Input
Amino acid sequence: MTTPTTDAEQTPSAVERRNTETVRRYLRVFETLEVGELKDLVAEDVVVHGAGQHVRGRSYPEGSVLTPGLSNCRLRVDDLFAAGDRVSVAFTLTYTHDRTGRDLTMTGVKSYRLVDGVIVEFWGETDLYGLLRQAGLVPAEVPAL
Output
């Protein structure tokens, strides 16, 4: 027999709400390009895991926001889940490719760890191959190994 959950058990905690808002603000920076706002959202010594790398420093997310050759970012949050000090997001980014004017789309999943409402560590992957394929920079099909 399953015990019914109470409203209190289904309501996100204040920490989860604050962390979710921080992550949403962080993601909006990709659209606004206001990298100065990252100082309030991302720890200076943030640890970033992804693409086979483990790096430290706010300069890495800043560099991602200011990707050369791509502009007019539009971000859609496809799924978001918060629990305790973690927020996980599945998203779709659509950029304008500056050289061709074409829209390029990239999906991704990131998981953020926050302390006191600031992102201190995150993991994730994006479909960079798909983005490069749309830009005509890699083959349409992955060669067999």
Remarks:
- Residues 14-32 form the longest helix (19 residues).
